[in-house]
Amino acid sequence: MPDWKDKVRCSFCHKKSSDVSKVIAGPGVHICDECINLCNEILEGERLAASTEPRLPMWESMSEEQILDHLPKIAAVQAQVDDNLRDWVAHLRTRDVSWERIGASLGMTRQSAWERFRSET
Ligand SMILES: [Zn+2]
């Protein structure tokens, strides 16, 4: 798998897996060791603060510019998840799993699954 390290990016910071020490995979997403460390610091900070303040949606504390800057990051994660889903479906097809079963797994019809995931080449 020569391309693996260039293709996989952390879903949180979007760094390439080749630019971090470790990337851990979840269903369609990845997280790098640096983001895990940041998460641990946030969790530790909350434990120390024993915060009881109500949690606001993230955008309540953001300017419009910050929110606009955030949109392409969400779109990039969405594209990465779509690619990943496509890879998993393509693998099932190499096992001759039917479009019927793939569609059922995703809550869509056989026809919809085929239209969405058939190889374009
Ligand atoms: Zn990261």
TrEMBL record:
<dbReference type="InterPro" id="IPR038366">
    <property type="entry name" value="Znf_CppX_C4_sf"/>
</dbReference>
<dbReference type="InterPro" id="IPR059188">
    <property type="entry name" value="Znf_CLPX-like"/>
</dbReference>
<feature type="binding site">
    <location>
        <position position="35"/>
    </location>
    <ligand>
        <name>Zn(2+)</name>
    </ligand>
</feature>
<keyword id="KW-0479">Metal-binding</keyword>
<protein>
    <submittedName>
        <fullName>ClpX C4-type zinc finger protein</fullName>
    </submittedName>
</protein>
<feature type="binding site">
    <location>
        <position position="32"/>
    </location>
    <ligand>
        <name>Zn(2+)</name>
    </ligand>
</feature>
<dbReference type="InterPro" id="IPR010603">
    <property type="entry name" value="Znf_CppX_C4"/>
</dbReference>
<feature type="binding site">
    <location>
        <position position="13"/>
    </location>
    <ligand>
        <name>Zn(2+)</name>
    </ligand>
</feature>
<comment type="similarity">
    <text>Belongs to the ClpX chaperone family.</text>
</comment>
<keyword id="KW-0862">Zinc</keyword>
<keyword id="KW-0143">Chaperone</keyword>
<dbReference type="Pfam" id="PF06689">
    <property type="entry name" value="zf-C4_ClpX"/>
</dbReference>
<feature type="binding site">
    <location>
        <position position="10"/>
    </location>
    <ligand>
        <name>Zn(2+)</name>
    </ligand>
</feature>
<feature type="domain" description="ClpX-type ZB">
    <location>
        <begin position="1"/>
        <end position="51"/>
    </location>
</feature>
